[in-house]
Write a structure and sequence with these properties.
Strand order of the largest sheet: 1-2
Largest sheet: 2 strands, antiparallel
Oligomer: single chain
Distance between the termini: 17 Å
Strand content: 5-15%
Number of domains: 1
Number of strands: 2
Number of helices: 1
Structural class: alpha+beta
């Protein structure tokens, strides 16, 4: 999983605010929904998907992820 940020501070800066979490394959920067994410964005392991710590989560990425993972 990789974060998408609100407009403003760059990823990694103290005031950077996460807008939404996306699912990516391996350590990629392209979300399953097609959005390009910053290589410096925060990441979480795939098993964090569906937990409160991974909210809000991209609906499109979630739908695609569920189709690929048993």
């Amino acid at each position: 999983m990789r974060a998408e940020y609100e407009e403003g501070p760059a990823p990694g800066e103290r005031d950077a605010e996460i807008r939404i979490w996306h699912m990516v394959r391996l350590d990629g920067t392209t979300a399953m929904c097609g959005r390009e994410l910053s290589p410096g964005a925060a990441t979480k392991p795939a098993d964090a998907w569906g937990t409160p710590e991974a909210e809000p989560f991209c609906h499109s990425c979630g739908a695609l992820y569920l189709r690929e993972v048993p």
